[in-house]
Amino acid sequence: MSPVNRLQEIPTRPFHYAGAQDRDLLCDRVPLSRLVRAYGTPLYVYSATNILGRVRLFAEAFAGMRATVCYSVKANSNLSILRLLAAADAGFDIVSGGELERVRQAAKSSLRRVVFSGVGKTAAEIDAALAARILVFNVESPAELDLLEQRARHLRKRAPVAMRVNPDVFAATHPYISTGMTEHKFGVAIGDAAALYQRAARSSYLTPTGVSVHIGSQIRSAEPFGQALQRVVQLVRELQSSYGIQIRHIDAGGGLGISYQADDAPQQGKRPANAESFDPKAAVLEYAQQMRVALAGFDGELLLEPGRFIIAQAGALLAQVLHTKRNGKKAFVVTDAAMNDLIRPALYQAYHSILPLRRQQDRPSAVVDVVGPVCETGDFFARDRELAALDAGDFLAILDAGAYGMSLSSNYNSRPRAAEVLVEGNRHRLIRRRETMRDLLAVERTFLNGGAE
Ligand SMILES: *Cc1c(COP(=O)(O)O)cnc(C)c1O
Q1: In angstroms, what is the span from residue 294 Cα to ligand 1's centroid?
Q2: Which residues contact 448 (CB under 8 A, 6 or more apart)?
Q3: Domain that holds residue 170
Q4: Ligand 1, atom 3: nearest CA belongs to which residue?
């Protein structure tokens, strides 16, 4: 990555109040009320400016090092977003044949900057990636190394290989998204890696080119990344000195966390009690500093696989209030968005800031649960949250929903999936239309009562 010019500062989030008496919530320069009128709700909205700003933060922080951002497609895999990132010279971290196809459709020339991760690649997925001539396979087990060699032999190709090592480093995050300890299913124990590299080096169909590591997601401290990388660098030295195996790149994985409680969210009246200050630029700089120290003496390329850090805060999920209701002491705000649209609160007990699209200074605040219509008690976006009172028909924005929002959405309760809009300055474009009833049923067949096969 080449050093870049100093940039104008990009706000942590693109969502802010403006207009008459600062009442209307905007994304960049587009009032969100205009988007809900044009496209309906539930609606995902992303700022291209904010996404590119995050990519540039990485470029700035790693200036002077040979570093490539391989955006983690699973965080948000919309084709327009992939194309936007490809145009900013990003590569991609994929975990399935479907994600490979997305990269091919969005930016064919970026296939050579694709790293393929995942603990269970199928023969068909490996074949497709070999044919696409991707940058490297991140191999997670001896069995997978065998399969990769077999497929490469079959197709008469040479597969570039990195072993994903498990460095046994603890990183504080939610247990479902911690991956870097030996009790987890990911990677091969770092102590077993050298033998696998020797096996790969002996094969005519495999070329060991890298070492990769990924210790988890939403990790807020930089130290675990440094510790993991130090162990990787030790392995790289051992491979070189003991076995003559030259490692060209180290893949440090993704996982850099954000603050879902960042206090720049313009709240109504007062700061929420859990608000914290969060400076994305400082976070990347500290992360890069840990890497720089750990990588001293390594003169190959560094690959980075950020997902959440790039896209989470660029996006929000917009919803409309259907009803408000009380059950005993509890007050509920029922929205037309649900856990099938954004599952993070249900899956990870995740916190998301919620803002009204229109601020009403005269409205009192109330403590409410914001919930969806799905038949699960886990179908909530906020619990016991103090919010400016919301009425039926009002619109709200659930912030920091750009990562693991749409990509984890489903049709549960036979709900068509939301539409997605990309904003850039004062322009907006539909990048995924709302699903229809026809989409919902398109791939199913009825046959019990004489329906056609
Ligand atoms: C999920 C994942 C990432 C991205 O993680 P973030 O926390 O979104 O940065 C990167 N690499 C691998 C191997 C992953 O599984």
Answers
A1: 20
A2: none
A3: 46-308
A4: 254
For residue 363, being part of any structural domain is answered with: no
Per-residue tokens: 232 = 């990787």
Q: Which residues line ligand 1 (CB under 6 A)?
A: 72, 74-75, 93, 117, 214, 217-218, 253-256, 305-309, 403
Domain count, the chain: 1
> What secondary structure does DSSP assign to 115-129, as a single string?
EE--S---HHHHHHH
Q: Which is it for strands 380-388 and 136-139: parallel, antiparallel or unpaired? A: unpaired
For this structure, is 70 an active site residue? no
Q: Is residue 138 part of a domain?
A: yes
| AA identity, residue 66 | R
- 11 Cβ neighbours under 8 A, 6+ residues apart: 50, 264
**Which of 55, 69, 71, 74, when mutated, tests ligand 1's pocket best, judged by the most ligand atoms within 8 Å of its CB?**
74
Domain containing residue 170: CATH number: 3.20.20.10
The CA 307 to ligand 1 mean position distance, Å, reads: 6
Rounded to the nearest whole angstrom, what is the distance from the C-alpha of residue 399 to the centroid of ligand 1? 20
Q: Which of 117, 127, 75, 111 is nearest to 96 (CA)?
A: 117
Show pLDDT as tens, one digit a residue, over the chain (453 residues): 433 444 557 799 999 999 888 999 999 999 999 999 999 999 999 999 999 999 999 999 999 999 999 999 999 999 999 999 999 999 999 999 999 999 999 999 999 999 999 999 999 999 999 999 999 999 999 999 999 999 999 999 999 999 999 988 877 777 777 777 767 778 899 999 999 999 999 999 999 999 999 999 999 999 999 999 999 999 999 999 999 999 999 999 999 999 999 876 555 555 677 788 899 999 999 999 999 999 998 999 999 999 999 999 999 999 999 999 999 999 999 999 999 999 999 999 999 999 999 998 888 899 999 999 998 888 999 999 999 989 999 999 999 999 999 999 999 999 999 999 999 999 999 999 999 999 999 999 988 766 555
